Signal recognition particle receptor FtsY (Kosmotoga pacifica), 305 residues
Amino acid sequence: MGFLSKIREGLKKTRESIFKQVRRLLSFEKLDDETLEEIEELLITSDMGVKTASEVIEKLKERANKSDNPLETLKEILRELLKIDSVEKHPELPPLVISVVGVNGTGKTTTIGKLSKRFVNEGKKVVLAACDTFRAAAVEQLKIWSERVGVDFISQGQGADPAAVAFDAVSHAKSKAKDVVLIDTAGRLHTKHNLMEELKKVHRVIKKVIPEAPHEVLLVIDATTGQNGLVQARKFMETVDITGIVLTKLDGTAKGGIVFAIVRELGIPVKYIGVGESIDDLRPFNSDEFVEAILGTEEFEENEV
């Protein structure tokens, strides 16, 4: 199965539930106000959000009737919406330090495991840091991923100081000339400690080893939580400098519109999307492919090689 086919398969629910209806409405000879209102309601239903959906409809209203192909016009608008500068930070000397944050249950630890596999496939030497020390299951799960992928694993066990684990992991990676450190952080604390303060402490301690680290802070959001994911994102953004979003479980929801809401309302690029359970189903996000995957015609699907 080709790359685009894999994404299309993962987004099948999204395409066949909501966006198929959008495509049908766009096939009408003229887009009157009633039809545009129906399309707007569908976009809101897709978790695009009222603000973003209204903006899309306004642009569609301006351009559609001047176009011979309203569907292609909508695709163009959606692609424009997803275009956002994504700054890639590459340290002069390794390791690249990536802090992965998000609430429990979003697929954070699994995402780290899949990311580590991607880096190994690129020939990189990877270190996983078990800094979610408040959950024994998280530490054990990350250890299993490290063994499965064949990468270094740094842990002090449940209850350890997360910042101390992060310090050890980054120090180990620096001394052993490793290429990438992936840090699994807590998504919830079972103590009176403040989660966000704990996260800031982890990042402060990392800087003692590598002043410019973490180079990337990826926020993992579960697509099935819809607009609640935006609420979570804003809370994390108040504390740390989020450089990118990883949107998981897109294959489990019919509401792919959340991608547009995240980029438009948060101003943060989506860097990876999860469209399945297997280790290779975490994909770099490509806005053109995403729009085609949810709004592509059946003819396109049949003709794709």
The longest helix spans residues 33-48. The radius of gyration is 21 Å. Residues 31 and 65 are 7 Å apart (CA to CA).
